Amino acid sequence: MDRLDHLEHLDRHLVEELAQVARETVREELREQSRKRRRTAVLYAASGAAALYAGGAVALAVGLALAIGLPGWAAALITAALLGAVAYLLRGAARSGHGPHAPHRVGAGTPPAAPGTPYPPVPGTPPMPRTPPDTPRRGA
User: Fold this and answer.
1) Predicted structure pTM score
2) Which of 47, 60, 96, 123 has the fewest CB atoms nearer than 10 Å to its CB?
C-alpha cells in the first residue's frame, strides 16, 4: 500500500512538471508571435503615416497648381472638394464590399437576399423532414 502511495505522488509530480513545461512552451510561443505581429503593426503604421504625408503633399501641389490661374481661396476650395469626393468614393467602395475577399455564402451556396442582410431570409413554409421513398408517412 505504501508503495502505491509513493507511485501516486510520483505521478502527480510528473503531471505538474509536464504542465509547467507545457505552460512555458506556450508562453514562449505566444511571446514570439506577438513580437512578430508587433513589428508588422509598426511597419503598417509607419507606411500609413508616410502615405498620409504623401497625400498631403499631392493635395498641396494640386492647390498650388490651381492657384496659378485662380485666387488662393478658390484653389483651396476646389482642392478640398476633390479630396471630399475621393473620400466619399472610397467610403462607398468600402461599404459595398468590393474587396479582396470572396463573397459570403449562406447555407447551400445561396447568397443573402440583400447586401448587408445578416441572416438568410426565413422561408414562408417550414421544411418537410426527409424520409426515404419506401417509408410510409404518418397520417397517410
Assistant:
1) 0.43
2) 123
Could you tell me which residues are beta bridge partners of residue 106? 110
Strands, DSSP E only, in the chain? none
Grid cell locating 60: 498641396
Taking the alpha carbons at both ends of the chain, their separation in whole angstroms is: 69
The x, y and z cell numbers of residue 26, run together, are 506556450
C-alpha cell of residue 31 = 511571446
Contact 120, 113 (CB under 8 A): yes
pLDDT band at 10 (very low <50, low <70, confident <90, very high): confident
Tell me: the pLDDT tens digits for 42-53? 888 889 889 889
What value does the mean pLDDT take over residues 22-38?
89
Assess whether pLDDT exceeds 70 at residue 136. no
Query: Residue-wise over 31-41: b if at least 16 C-beta within 10 A, else e?
Result: eeeeeeeeeee
What contacts 111, CB < 8 A, 6 or more positions away?
103, 104, 105
Pull the grid cell for residue 125.
413554409
CA-to-CA distance for 61 and 68, rounded, in angstroms? 11
